[in-house]
């Protein structure tokens, strides 16, 4: 290679310099805007949040339905969400089950069908669940009711996300 090949012309120097400076300035403008635009998506969804539902003193060994509301942030949108849980005492344990049938999502009720006492019953297709949420064989649901994560703080029962039991 000759020495001439290594020389950079004034035009090339200006082109490289202006391209570099222009790119740097553009990045300084575009990157903060992009970050601002996608920031809500990068935030945690709040799924790990715990919500106060009732007092431990309200619970018995019979499942009772409790409704609870909280604000849910979903990217740019905040909405009031209402959930329900069937909660009962199992010795020292607190069991909180989702009322959503694991067949097709109807709402189950406790002890509501006289032919199947002391079970959760789904009126849509006759799905049945035992007290601990286990699905009764031979009925449409193929998995147990989902179970909420439970915490007790100062006598108040907090529920987290309902998760599959299997
Ligand atoms: S939705 Fe509950 S049995 Fe079908």
TrEMBL record:
This chain belongs to which protein, by name?
Ubiquinol-cytochrome c reductase iron-sulfur subunit
Q: Which PROSITE patterns match?
A: RIESKE, TAT
The cross-references to InterPro entries, in alphabetical order and at most eight, read:
Rieske_2Fe-2S (IPR017941), Rieske_2Fe-2S_sf (IPR036922), Rieske_Fe-S_prot (IPR014349), Rieske_Fe-S_prot_C (IPR005805), TAT_signal (IPR006311)
Residues forming the Rieske domain are 63-159
Spans through the membrane: 12-34
Which cofactor(s) are needed, names only? [2Fe-2S] cluster
Which residues are in coiled coils? Answer: none
Q: Which organism is it from?
A: Aliibacillus thermotolerans
The UniProt keywords, alphabetically, are: 2Fe-2S, Disulfide bond, Iron, Iron-sulfur, Membrane, Metal-binding, Transmembrane, Transmembrane helix
């Amino acid at each position: 290679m000759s020495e001439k090949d290594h020389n950079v012309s004034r035009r090339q120097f200006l082109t490289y310099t202006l391209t570099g400076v222009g790119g740097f300035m553009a990045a300084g403008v575009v990157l903060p805007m992009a970050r601002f635009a996608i920031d809500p998506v990068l935030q945690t969804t709040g799924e790990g949040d715990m919500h106060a539902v009732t007092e431990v003193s309200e619970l018995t060994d019979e499942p009772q339905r409790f409704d609870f509301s909280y604000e849910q942030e979903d990217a740019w949108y905040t909405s009031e969400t209402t959930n329900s849980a069937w909660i009962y005492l199992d010795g020292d344990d607190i069991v909180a089950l989702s009322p959503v049938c694991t067949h097709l999502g109807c709402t189950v009720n406790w002890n509501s069908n006289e032919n199947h006492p002391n079970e959760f019953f789904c009126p849509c297709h006759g799905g049945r669940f035992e007290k601990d949420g286990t699905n009764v064989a031979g009925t449409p649901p193929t998995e147990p009711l989902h179970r909420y994560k439970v915490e007790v703080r100062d006598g108040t029962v907090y529920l987290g996300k309902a998760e599959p039991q299997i």
